[in-house]
Please model this.
Amino acid sequence: MLKSGLLIIVLIFPGILSAQSLEKQGTERRSANVKLAYNSSVIYPGIRTGIEFPTEIVNLDKARKGDRHPSLKIERFITLNAGWYHHPDFHDNIYPTLGYLIRRTRSNGFMIEFSPEAGLSRTYLGGTTYRVNDSGLVTIEKHAGYTYLLFSIGGGLGYDLKVNYSKPYTLYLKGNLLIMLPYNSTIYLRPALEAGLIFTPGSFLKRSCKIKSKIR
Amino acid sequence: MRTILKIALLAIMAVACQKEEITIGTNVSDTFYLDNKGASMRVLVEGNTASGTFLVIVHGGPGGGAYIYNTDYISNHIEDKFAVVYWDQRNAGASQGNNNGKNLTLSKMTNDLKKVIETLKARYGQNSEVFILGHSFGGMIAASFMTQDTLRSMVNGWIMADASHNYPLNNRLTREMLLNLGREQMDANLNTEKWEPIISWCLAHPSINTMEEAKKLESFASDAENLFPEVKHIGFSDFTGLIVKEDWAVTSMLFNYLYSKHADINENLEKTGFSTLLYKINKPTLLLWGKYDFVCPSELGTEIFNRIDTNEKQFVVSSKAGHAIMFQDPEFFCDKINTFIYRYR
Model:
């Protein structure tokens, strides 16, 4: 538990581990990423898509002899996402979210990421839904389902093809825990697994992004 | 972008099937939902809908869920003859809703059962013949339903299987059974180390007055049947095969169960009984009990048998079952139910 907590803190505030000296700081207009993933809710299928707007990129150099190349890149994004999964006979769930994403990419291309998200969930019940009035008249309720507040916490890993292959893609796998409420006066938890691709176009919804270089 | 969104929504709507499907056949599996007072309750109808006869399972709990009753044995030995209706009560199983806890009351659940039956008749025909089966806490809903003049006429008959119709009486009978059988076991030098704390606790609590005492008594009662080798021990592992096969909404079941287990309804149930109203019941009645059911002792069945106003009644006890007769002695369970329904449909 303590280890997980430390890992989360280190992912969010990587600078606390070591003293760093700032070499360069500036801003650039950077393209947003687009992601598309198969979104499996355990064994049930779905889709997840989103846009990642970079807000900060920190290149951390290792101060080794003769090696001044960036050894770690830490990126922070604001993300807009939309997910959907289909659980037969239970419900379909569509959930748009706004999130904060931290991604650490090593010089060999492997990356890990962590993201808290918040949003809404709209479910559609997995079957015809009836209402019966007090005199026994049975009618069908269209688009029956519920709206919930949704929070999500996720962690993933992947491989950034930009690093070694100069391709604008990152392959990734990510686990998310969805928390929905109020669900029957309590909460509802749902694990979900994304397997997908992040595409970084040359120019797409460009916005200003802080760029920092540090030596540690 | 709008076109993509439209296509995506259309695709999702195509998969998210809320189109009405009513199947008349011998091997049916239809799921629908009933929306009532803040809860959307899952209803699964399986088996022979062409028979025109429906057995509605009123599950235990509160918060237990109906998924577990849908075993292969029941599918092969009851569903082939009649349709079995697995209804998830509000705040149980795959039932869904927002802030609906205030509606988790016995009277609302009785009203839910009425509407489940009305929906079944609207879907499968007003001439459909309906039987209800209460298990454990489900017996309270069944007894509440059957003792109301306007509701009782909706069904052909009712079945109580290891069920309770009176919680205060239930507590007294459970305590007595634990003391009596526990002492017999101690005298025979069987499981003495396990019986000793149970008997001590029962002696120290001559009456059950608080929720904590009721929960403790129930926990002793659940454990006690496992001290008899003739009773099959039932655990979660017995149902794991059904989780994927039946698309269980596992976390929904878990959180619904945890919520219902601690909800206010439990306090009210501890003071609720239908013994004095049983005289109103004039419908065919089947009482199915496990000899080693400490949770709902068979004397509850005896009381129902003696108080109802019908000669069309049968009280049978399985010598190798405890509180889960449908899983512990399924052959006996299915055989008695089929005979009963064939007779009174």
Remarks:
- The CA atoms of residues 285 and 313 of chain B lie 5 Å apart.
- Chain B has 14 helices and eight strands.
